Automatic annotation (TrEMBL):
SUPFAM superfamilies: Acyl-CoA N-acyltransferases (Nat). It is an enzyme of class 2 (transferase). Residues 19-188 form the N-acetyltransferase domain. This is GNAT family N-acetyltransferase. It comes from Streptomyces ramulosus. Keywords: Acyltransferase, Transferase.
Length: 215
């Protein structure tokens, strides 16, 4: 018996031209936590609806560990959240998540991600999102993917536009005591096929399908 016998998600791999996405081992998770401690965004802005980065470096690192463990511990085929470490040339550069509730019926996924500050502006955000969109649409048979970004988060919105997302309404949030508008975005399977530009390969997916609620 191995870990894969009981937890096949540990063998899931997504590959793009520059990146590999996978569940992190303990050392990679520690590296991800350290990356968060060093900074994820300009402190002058807050791009996340939950301001988890507005704390000290040690608390920020600890929150990354707890967020990852909580997602794995609560996993159910009808309610799952897959948070993958993003690795480039052996270095952890960020994390890409994909989640769903009642996926067999709704066929819809949500995504979220962040990169360490040193890895911004290199096109990696597009590649890592393309990887999980391939997993969702080509691997799991999703019909929709949703995302969102605050109106002043030009980089995230540009990634979504590049990948084919369309506007899906707005939400009003409070960020640091001030009102903020979050733009919702939606990508259909048809538009995903039309806007595919990043080649993606998967490994270890067939064994994982029941864990995603896919027969």
């Amino acid at each position: 018996m191995t870990l894969l016998t009981h937890w096949p998600l540990a063998g899931l791999r997504l590959f793009t031209p520059r990146l590999e996405l996978r569940l992190p081992d303990p050392e990679e998770l520690a590296a991800l936590a350290s990356l968060a401690a060093e900074g994820v965004h300009d402190p002058a802005v807050q791009p996340f609806p939950v301001a988890w980065t507005d704390v000290g470096p040690e608390e920020r690192a600890r929150s990354v560990l707890q967020f990852h463990w909580r997602g794995l511990g609560a996993w159910r085929p009808e309610d799952w959240e897959l948070n993958l470490v993003v690795v480039r040339d052996g270095t952890v550069v960020g994390t890409q998540g994909i989640s769903a509730r009642d996926f067999p019926v709704r066929r819809e996924v949500d995504t979220g991600s962040w990169l360490g500050l040193a890895h911004h502006g290199q096109g990696l955000g597009t590649e890592m999102r393309a990887a999980v969109l391939h997993l969702a649409f080509a691997g799991l048979g999703a019909q929709h993917a949703v995302s969102g970004a605050f109106a002043d988060n030009a980089a995230s919105l540009a990634v979504s536009r590049r990948l084919g997302y369309e506007d899906d309404g707005v939400e009003r949030h409070v960020v640091r005591g001030e009102p903020a508008v979050l733009r919702r975005l939606r990508l259909t399977a048809e538009r995903w096929r039309q806007h595919r530009t990043v080649p993606v390969e998967t490994a270890g997916l067939p064994e994982c399908l029941p864990w995603f609620g896919v027969a």
